[in-house]
Amino acid sequence: MADGGESAGEAGGIRRSRLRDYAEMGEAEPPAAPADPSEPLTSDDVMARGRHEFAVLLGEFRRTAVLVPTDEDDAPLVGDFGGIRWIYAFSNESALARFAIARGEGGREWPYRRLLGARLLDAAVPAVGVPCGVALDAGTEGEGVLFPPVTGIVPERAAVDAGVDVDAAMEVRG
Fold first, then answer.
1. What is the pLDDT of residue 84?
2. Bridge-based pairing state of the strands 84-89 and 132-136
3. What is d(CA 87, CA 124) in angstroms, rounded to the nearest whole number?
4. Most distant pair of Cα atoms in the chain: their distance
5. Could you give the CA distance from residue 125 to residue 154 in angstroms, rounded to a whole number?
6. Quick count: other Cβ atoms within 10 Å of Cβ 55?
7. Residue 10 and residue 89: Cα distance in Å, rounded?
8. In the prediction, which pLDDT does 31 show?
9. What Å distances lie between residue 147 and 10, 12, 88, 117, 133, CA to CA?
10. What does the chain look like in DSSP terms, one character per residue?
11. Mean pLDDT by 10 residues, the chain (174 residues)
């Protein structure tokens, strides 16, 4: 990614990262609520709010050190679901403990490493070699978040939707 976020054709043809778009969305004000509170939100309003909230959450995750449990070979603990490998990450030791108890393994020691969320998404996910995302706080009811392997969350080389024109696909579905 170029430091200034130049687009193709600028600064030697370096393409602007979509992560910068998400970061800028997080910095912007969320979409305004309707002037009349009794007026229902449109689906576009709901989608815009959801995108904004996720962008803020993604930015916070990228800047935060999380706990990544490791196996006996010091590799991150992962699980496979829906054709995706998920690296388990936890926001604190309590969340990791809830996960261990949910697995019926609360009595054993759980070694872990502290890593920045950005390092997980930008380095660990592509290193896995198969479609991979990050599952934050799995086992914590109502608190877990998935960061799937899609463009804008992980590097394009690791994104399952790389090369897909998402806007065109949404128009066809809509």
1. 95
2. parallel
3. 9
4. 58
5. 7
6. 21
7. 37
8. 58
9. 30, 31, 11, 10, 6
10. --TT-PPTTSTTTPPPPHHHHHHHHHHSPPPPPPSSTTSPPPHHHHHHHHHHHHHHHHHHHHHSEEEEEB-TTSPBPEEEETTEEEEEEBSSHHHHHHHHHHTT-TTS---EEEEEHHHIIIIIHHHH-SSEEEEETTTSTTT-EEE-S-BTTB-GGG-TTTT--HHHHHHHH-
11. 37 42 49 64 78 91 96 94 96 95 93 97 96 94 91 93 61 50
Q: Where do we find the tokens 């969305």?
A: 25
Identify the residue whose tokens are 């086992």. Answer: 139
Query: What is the reported pTM?
Result: 0.70
Is residue 91 within 8 A of residue 112, CB to CB? The reply is: no
User: Are the beta carbons of 87 and 112 closer than 8 angstroms?
Assistant: no
Contact 140, 98 (CB under 8 A): yes
CB atoms near residue 144 (< 10 Å): 15
Name residue 114's beta-bridge partners: 67
d(CA 16, CA 7): 5
